[in-house]
Automatic annotation (TrEMBL), chain A:
It is found in: Cell membrane. It comes from Tropicimonas sediminicola. Pfam families: Complex1_49kDa. Belongs to the complex I 49 kDa subunit family. Residues 152-313, 317-392 form the NADH-quinone oxidoreductase subunit D domain. The chain crosses the membrane at residues 130-153. One of its GO terms (molecular function) is oxidoreductase activity, acting on NAD(P)H. NDH-1 shuttles electrons from NADH, via FMN and iron-sulfur (Fe-S) centers, to quinones in the respiratory chain. The immediate electron acceptor for the enzyme in this species is believed to be ubiquinone. Couples the redox reaction to proton translocation (for every two electrons transferred, four hydrogen ions are translocated across the cytoplasmic membrane), and thus conserves the redox energy in a proton gradient. This is NADH-quinone oxidoreductase subunit D. GO terms for cellular component: plasma membrane. It comes from the Bacteria. InterPro entries: NADH_Q_OxRdtase_suD, NADH_UbQ_OxRdtase_49kDa_CS, NDH1_su_D/H, NiFe-Hase_large. It is a peripheral membrane protein. Keywords: Membrane, NAD, Quinone, Translocase, Transmembrane, Transmembrane helix, Transport, Ubiquinone.
From TrEMBL, chain B:
Keywords: Membrane, Transmembrane, Transmembrane helix. It holds the Pfam family NADHdh. It comes from the Bacteria. This is Membrane bound protein complex subunit mbxM. It is a multi-pass membrane protein.
UniProtKB/TrEMBL annotation, chain C:
One of its GO terms (biological process) is electron transport coupled proton transport. InterPro entries: NADH_UbQ_OxRdtase-like_20kDa, NADH_UQ_OxRdtase_20Kd_su. It comes from Tropicimonas sediminicola. Transmembrane segments: none annotated. Belongs to the complex I 20 kDa subunit family. Residues 80-190 form the NADH:ubiquinone oxidoreductase-like 20kDa subunit domain. NCBIfam families: nuoB_fam, PRK06411.1. One of its GO terms (molecular function) is quinone binding. The lineage of its organism: Bacteria, Pseudomonadati, Pseudomonadota, Alphaproteobacteria, Rhodobacterales. This is NADH-quinone oxidoreductase subunit B.
UniProtKB/TrEMBL annotation, chain D:
It comes from the Bacteria. The lineage of its organism: Bacteria, Pseudomonadati, Pseudomonadota, Alphaproteobacteria, Rhodobacterales. It comes from Tropicimonas sediminicola. This is NADH-quinone oxidoreductase subunit C. One of its GO terms (molecular function) is NADH dehydrogenase (ubiquinone) activity. Residues 27-144 form the NADH:ubiquinone oxidoreductase 30kDa subunit domain.
Length: 392, 301, 230, 176
């Protein structure tokens, strides 16, 4: 009925080097900085937008506001001293760093973590994944002005953090998975209390279904917006839920089972549209998978057993020369640690492969041109990026 | 219309009551949103403290004359609206300065604040302000369209442009309200009401996630305090107009408080559970739903 | 503490040139006029902050301080990992709104800058800018051990070690990272300080402006601020 | 993995295959053959996913090792391709035309290691650091602690212990 198609003939033409010819002094374009201090940005990063009217013609991601030089600091620490700082690489889901680092060290040092530790690690990772998805579901509502989902989801996340606290003694940085195993056993009555949390979570998620996913305004805002062409998945290194939303059932938990995922029973959720709505629904389904997995793990895991394998004296721990790459499916995609040792007591090089690295940089810059300013925040949240793992 | 000096303190008293009522209502609405989220929320007197705090800030930065006048225009829009609208029907002192054609003036004042804000925010020079203002003007223009049509419809129905006379015509029972005598006009006007109360799904003007709170981005200290005062007065004043035109007005302060509260809660409740529209989506929404209903209301009178 | 390690000497020769778009130049306006612009002068205020006196009557100042303490508007700028514990503060479990603490998206309207964790040099520049945009009296709270003495990033080449060298800090909350309960306790402590009239950070900053600027410039080498970067 | 290695070994002058557990293997290739190898792996053998691109500084040997990690989802194979380049004239070949996302990695390598990738887009723009004037920080000869001590003011009172000595004194206070 009313069609508001933007007039694209006014757009800047790409020059010979493929870059857009934008002359700010013509007054036709406006530079907008979103971030780092901006409520619509996921964490501490910024997007430099060039807008023409309400349409964005160019977007550049700027990161580095959280750079601490982790990969350098790790080279200066012994293998056990690295362990407390790895979790700081990614704040909202720190456990994956601990697991990847521990598994990489175990791989190179030839240590096998005991079975109980394997189950425990899977439990911790699923709990962390649940927390991360809670942040996402709150964030995507918040980015579109539906603050209530953020309130509910953060509350549920707090409940899960209580269970983390009970298990590990810390709310955010758990430092529970260390090379050789895990730090402890399940406390008495943990299963019952976890079941209460999961029940509450399911109740709140049903509310989210009603308020967010069946809300017509939410659908209007998200359907058909920010579509990633599935042909771009490989060139841009898209993994995890972002790829699953485009119909590609990529999930390392199924494709390349690690820990005890081959003994667990779960389905990989996919969607077809590859837009913001599809990415949100895939994550909503994944939360359910996570809840089911936590229940299964608590039922199937051995009740007792050693939590730690025997590791050498950490003060004299030298690992022979070698290199390895350990990967896993975190809530955002493929998370991996590339560890190189040179036979001394210090790692030669550790490289963290965070999924946000490709999602927030090359992919986001590719997706932003042509969107509305209003959609930039939702688009960024829907890619589920955490800046600390980009710059480390 | 005769003018008597006693009207001045009377009008100021009305203004004072409405200011306090508005400050409390704003807090109540925020408490409502907090309760839906499961929080206790701010104390109800928080707005007063915020006002005092903002007036008490020591430093202020001025970006120019219009920057200074922006909040002043905005506030005069709110106060002007109150002064020319009869608040309590039949009361000798809460009539304010209402006169035969006050409906037209009221419609003008509804728009006046937005225009003043546009000038002020433009002078502040912040790109987010400029974007917010252009969004705001575009959306308010289309959102007020159904309201204007509904007012025409009422003018035809009651053969007057005086709010007092429209209220008088609605007295004598529930079914004399415009709500029942001209329901289409009420529906059209309610579109405008929800659309201009700055709550979701039509709060793209402020949209913190896109353009950090839009037009007032650069406003601070006493300037912001002026705008906060207006944020308390203006929605109540607007609600009074709607109450007078469509819901039978109020014969005493208790009836006023209840009716305004209920009307005020409509956009608040809708806002809690909805995300926001993009600006062109909300424009489309008003043109698609509000405009035809408004035209129908005129045709069926 | 170890002595300074002088086997490695940092490079002092190179300086960062001013970015091209910030150099003075001639431009043609859309209507064909040719004007000279000097972005750093035109876009930024060069005036140093002023010391603002307290109210003349102590009772008025006490009343104002009471209002300031009960209406703390926090700038929602998550500078480090501590930002993740700010969100539970706004939500049901630890609702900080009931103490009059609110989040504002723009620095102009906020009074409290939370430095939530370590500050890399790049963020420090933005934090300083945000702080200078805020209106006095304004307060700074440093969160976590990394703002106090570097914490676990004591040997990092990109994070500062002492926040109070660069901004006037009113309160530190220790921990890595501080729990929400600790944050709430910190806010209560800050309120007490404000009510007692001890939080004069803005005036302190204005009085020692030269020192603060020298400290900031010794760390931030790329000292041109992009416009509207906050 | 062995079949692919055997197939490509002669043509691309591959080094010996170093398998690790779980479908992961590493192989060394001369710089001239890198592009052809990557293209063939991507187009013919299903290694379509560029997992990461990073560098390792072997300062003692005067070499940088560039690691291109490729993944074949269908067969669950991960191949790490090592390219040794000279540390003095550090220069690699850009692969941003094969994987656009590689441009980001190359920007990071340029900034953090000082490895040049001629032709890569926005290579000289600042990526993570801002106004950095010193050596590229990830090089081994850049001393992070010394730089930090010389640049940032420290709060007095911080004590650093050698972990070995400290533990000994805690565990055996009598000096046994």
């Amino acid at each position: 009925m009313f069609s508001f198609k933007p007039d694209r003939s006014q757009y800047p033409a790409p020059g010979p080097d493929g870059k857009l010819q934008i002359d700010l002094e013509t007054g036709k374009y406006l530079k907008l900085w979103q971030g780092p201090n901006h409520p619509g940005i996921t964490g501490n990063m910024s997007v430099e937008l060039t807008v023409c009217g309400d349409e964005v013609v160019e977007g550049k991601t700027h990161v580095g506001y959280l750079h601490r030089g982790f990969e350098k600091l790790m080279e200066r620490r012994t293998f056990i001293q690295v362990f407390p700082i790895v979790c700081r690489v990614c704040v909202p889901e720190p456990d994956f760093n601990e697991y990847c680092y521990a598994a990489a060290v175990e791989d190179l040092a030839g240590i096998e973590a005991p079975e109980y530790a394997q189950w425990m690690r899977t439990l911790i990772l699923e709990m962390g994944r649940f927390n991360s998805y809670m942040m996402f579901l709150g964030g995507i509502g918040g980015a579109l002005g539906l603050g209530i989902t953020g309130q509910w989801m953060t509350y549920v996340r707090d409940l899960m953090l209580d269970r983390f606290e009970e298990l590990t003694g810390a709310r955010i940085y758990h430092m529970f998975i260390l090379p050789g195993g895990v730090r402890g056993h399940l406390p008495e009555g943990f299963e019952g209390r976890m079941e209460e949390v999961l029940d509450t979570a399911e109740r709140y998620l049903a509310d989210i279904d009603r308020v967010m996913f069946s809300n017509s305004v939410f659908k209007t805002r998200t359907k058909g917006v920010g579509v990633i062409d599935p042909a771009l998945f490989e060139p841009y290194g898209v993994t995890g839920p972002n790829a699953r939303a485009g119909g590609v059932a990529k999930d390392l938990r199924k494709d390349s089972p690690y820990l005890v995922y081959d003994q667990l029973d779960f389905e990989v959720a996919t969607a077809t549209d590859s837009d913001i709505f599809a990415r949100a629904t895939v994550r909503r389904a994944d939360v359910q998978t996570s809840i089911d997995l936590i229940r299964q793990i608590l039922k199937k895991m051995p009740k007792t057993g050693p939590a730690m394998a025997k590791i050498p004296n950490v003060l004299h721990w030298k690992i022979p020369r070698g290199e390895t790459y350990i990967k896993g499916e975190c809530s955002r995609g493929e998370y991996g640690y590339y560890l190189v040792t040179d036979g001394t007591g210090y790692p030669r090089r550790i490289n963290v492969r965070g999924p946000s690295y490709t999602h927030a940089m090359a992919l986001l810059e590719h997706l932003i041109p042509g969107t509305n300013i209003s959609d930039v925040a939702a688009l960024m949240v829907s890619l589920h990026t955490y800046p600390p793992e980009i710059e480390r | 219309m005769t003018f008597e000096w006693i009207q001045v303190p009377y009008a100021l008293a009305t203004l004072f009551i409405i200011l306090n009522y508005g400050l409390l209502m704003t807090a109540v609405v925020r408490k409502l949103a907090a309760r839906v989220g499961g929080r206790p929320g701010i104390p109800v007197w928080q707005n007063y403290i915020d006002l005092v705090k903002n007036f008490a800030l020591r430093s202020k930065i001025n970006h120019g004359v219009m920057y200074y006048l922006g909040p002043v225009f905005r506030l005069s829009g709110g106060i002007g609206l109150i002064l020319f609208v009869p608040t309590i029907y039949g009361s000798s002192w809460a009539q304010n300065f209402s006169f035969a054609g006050d409906l037209v003036l009221a419609l003008y004042f509804i728009f006046f604040g937005t225009l003043g804000m546009a000038l002020g925010a433009g002078e502040s020079g912040h790109p987010h302000s400029a974007i917010g203002v252009s969004r705001g003007l575009a959306q308010v223009t289309t959102a007020e369209l159904p309201m204007a049509l509904a007012v025409y419809s009422l003018a035809i129905q009651y053969q007057t442009l005086s709010i007092t006379e429209i209220v008088a015509a609605q007295q004598g029972g529930l079914f004399n309200w415009t709500l029942f005598t001209n329901p289409l006009a009420v529906v059209a006007a309610m579109f405008a009401f929800v659309g201009t109360m700055m709550r979701s799904p039509f709060d793209v003007v402020l949209a913190p996630q896109e353009i950090p709170i839009g037009p007032p981005t650069e406003y601070h200290s006493a300037y912001l305090a002026l705008m906060q005062t207006n944020r308390a007065i203006f929605p109540i004043a607007k609600t009074i107009i709607y109450m007078n035109l469509f819901f039978g007005g109020a014969a005493n302060w208790a009836e006023f408080a209840i009716k305004v509260f209920l009307l005020y809660m409509i956009p608040a409740v809708i806002g809690v559970v909805h995300p926001r529209f993009r600006v062109e989506q909300s424009i489309r929404f008003f043109l698609k739903w509000g405009l035809p209903v408004g035209i129908l209301a005129i045709l069926t009178v | 503490m170890k002595d300074v390690d002088d086997k490695f000497l940092k490079n002092l020769d190179r300086t960062v040139p001013l970015r091209e778009e910030l150099r003075p130049r001639k431009v043609t306006t859309p209507d064909g006029q040719e004007i000279e612009i000097e972005p750093l002068k035109d876009y930024f205020c060069e005036a140093a902050p002023k010391v603002h006196a307290k109210s003349y009557f102590p009772i008025v100042e006490d009343f104002y301080n009471w209002a300031r303490a009960n209406s703390l508007w926090i700038l929602g700028f998550g500078t480090g990992c501590g930002a993740i514990e700010m969100r539970p503060l706004m939500t049901p479990r630890f609702d900080a709104y009931r103490y009059g603490i609110q989040w504002r998206p723009t620095p102009r309207q906020s009074n409290l800058l939370m430095i939530s964790g370590y500050l890399s040099v790049k963020t420090l520049k933005r934090a300083i800018r945000a702080y200078e945009q805020m209106q006095g009296p304004k307060y700074v709270v440093g969160l976590g051990s990394c703002t106090i003495n570097g914490g676990m990033y004591w040997d990092s080449y990109n994070t500062i070690k002492r926040l109070d060298q660069y901004l006037p800090v009113d309160l530190y909350i220790a921990g890595c990272m501080p729990r929400p309960e600790a944050l709430l306790a910190g806010f209560m402590e800050l309120k007490k300080l404000i009510k007692a009239g001890k939080c004069e950070g803005a005036n302190k900053y204005a009085e020692n402006f030269a020192t603060y600027k020298a400290n900031q410039k010794s760390v931030i080498k790329d000292w041109d601020m992009p416009d509207y970067n906050w | 993995m062995r079949d692919i290695h055997a197939l490509l070994k002669q043509r691309h002058r591959l080094g010996p295959l170093e398998p690790r557990k779980g479908g992961l293997a590493f192989v060394t290739v001369p710089r001239e053959n890198l592009r052809g190898l990557l293209l063939e792996l991507r187009d013919t053998h299903g290694f379509t996913h560029l997992v990461l691109l990073t560098a390792v500084d072997w300062m003692e040997d005067g070499l940088f090792q560039l690691t291109y990690m490729l993944n074949n989802r269908g067969r669950d194979l991960t191949l790490g391709i090592r390219v040794m380049i000279d540390r003095e004239e550090a220069q690699g070949d850009t692969i941003h035309d094969m994987w656009p996302t590689a441009a980001t990695y190359q920007r990071e390598l340029k900034e953090m290691f000082g490895i040049d990738f001629p032709g890569s887009p926005r290579l000289d723009e600042e990526f993570i650091l801002e106004g950095w004037t010193d050596l590229p920080p990830y090089r081994r000869d850049f001393d992070s602690l010394a730089y930090s001590q010389q640049t940032y003011a420290e709060r007095p009172g911080r004590v650093t212990h050698d972990p070995r000595e400290y533990m000994k004194s805690k565990l055996y206070p009598d000096g046994v």
